[in-house]
Amino acid sequence: MGTSSELNGVLSERHVIAIAVGMLMQRCKLRRIDATRRLTQVATVSKVSMFDAASLLIDTHPRPLRPEYN
Description:
By secondary structure, the chain is an all-alpha fold. It has a single domain (4-59), classed as Orthogonal Bundle (Arc Repressor Mutant, subunit A), CATH 1.10.10.10. It contains three helices and no strands. It has helices at residues 4-28, 32-46, 50-59. Helix 1 (4-28) packs across helix 3 and helix 2 (32-46) crosses helix 3. The longest helix is centred in the N-terminal third of the chain and has 25 residues, at 4-28.
């Protein structure tokens, strides 16, 4: 069994992946399984980990403008 910090790292990676899947579900109107498959495809084609693909997706997600800027 790993240390507490190793466990926290794994949980953090899973959390980032879950957020990215949720964002794909919302943005592309996908079911969870389809969003997971799409993220897996991106990671495979890009030759990066699921965590890296999820991080990239989150970092490039367009953020909505606040009402005062619209």
